Amino acid sequence: MSQARNWDEFMEGIWRQNPVFVMVLGMCPTLAVTVSGINALSMGVATTFVLICSCGLVSLLRKLIPKEVRIATYIVIIATFVTVVDYVIQAVSLALYDALGAFIQLIVVNCIILGRAEAHASKTPPAPAMVNALGMGIGFTIGLLALGCVREILGAGTLFGISLFGAGFQPWVVMVLPPGGFFVLGAWLLLFAALERRKQRKLAEVRHV
Fold first, then answer.
1. Domain range holding 19?
2. Which of 18, 30, 35, 197 is the 20 to 30 Å CA partner of 142?
3. Residues 198, 199, 204, CA angle at the centre, nearest 5°?
4. Cα–Cα distances in Å, from 13 out to 20, 105, 118, 144, 175?
5. Quick one: 43 exposed, middle or buried, by C-beta within 10 A (0-12, 13-18, 19+)?
6. How many domains would you assign to the chain?
């Protein structure tokens, strides 16, 4: 596989098809766990691990899995790696495990992972499948961090638990509540839409020259 193809596979999930800001997938964990940067980063890393491992295994077994049971097989594979992540997070930090709650187990039905397994990994060799999964995972993590950092800074005056503004800061409590997730997500989607429109305008201008 050429370096150019590697790069295209990797960048697909980070920018062109970012799961959060372009495809708008995985909204449950995106809105629920992004009350802080550490929660967002942890969920992103966990999802990326499951993505890479499950897509790699699906790709390896793609010619052996009967079409009639492929979705059920993919779910079993994904659930296996989610179980590994679940136990690892419990062992590392019970506080983090409690903060992420049921959303760790819900990685099993995350449409990003199942979609990558069905649409990409089942049709490509292991190397490009895992590179693509890595890009998607990093893109998802970037999306979570974009929300989590903004919400933590405005809602608590901290970033990854480090105080930024001192005792006199008045936090925007709404940012750590469910409406805050929608407000911040809407602002980021508006920014990405504006960037896309600007890109399309420039392309149109180039064609007219």
1. 3-208
2. 197
3. 95
4. 10, 23, 16, 14, 27
5. buried
6. 1
